[in-house]
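This part of the workshop introduces the protein records we will be handling. A record pairs a protein's sequence with a compact description of its fold. As an example, a complete record with its sequence and its structure tokens follows.

_____
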Amino acid sequence: MTLLPLLAPLLLPDWMDPEYLIHALGNWALWGVALVLIIECSIFPILPGDSLLFTVGMFIAMDPPSITFAGMSQPMVLLVSCVILMIAAVLGNVFGYFVGKWIGPAIFKPREGFWGRIFDPKRVDQTHELMERYGPRALVLARFVPFARTFITLIAGIGRMDFRKFITWTGVGAVVWAVGITVLGYFMGNLPFIHTNLELVLVIIVLISVLPMVFEYLRERRKLKAEATSSSE
């Protein structure tokens, strides 16, 4: 007997349990999930995202009353659900972008003392340069990292990232993330091991979702170290 099944309930309390949320939302489950995604992708990172999408896909494969549309085949229900969840992911990021754009000038303004050094307006210009350089890649990768997918949109707004570039790449990220994980849940959710160990699988999904940003950080760190070595020679 391993410890992971025992730890899963502790790592995934009821209010973050996708199954609990979907059952609690009843016939409004899909629309409730869409609302959760909008909130999580914009201003409140402490909500299930990846695991919720996976569970929606799994529930569609199980064909429960909570995620069905009258007269639609199961593949069509999956298609419609993916479109709704993708739109919700985009709307959440757009809202977060404008929240960042709105609060940026209020936070980063000239002032004296400690807070003046922390929230120096020059940091906005530095953030703008970073978003123009790394923004597209960061917007896609951050989709798969809890907390990061919320804050990257706020940072994009604060840094005044070009909105056309922002909406293009946040759309790409939404398709890869929302559609990809939902479809993955649809095809894998009914596997006996996954179905009987769902809580453990959802915890593992959250842990795995952090890996892309870790790899990107390590890759960038090696690149900077190589540049520093070459410049010192």
User: Anything to note?
Assistant: The longest helix spans residues 74-107.
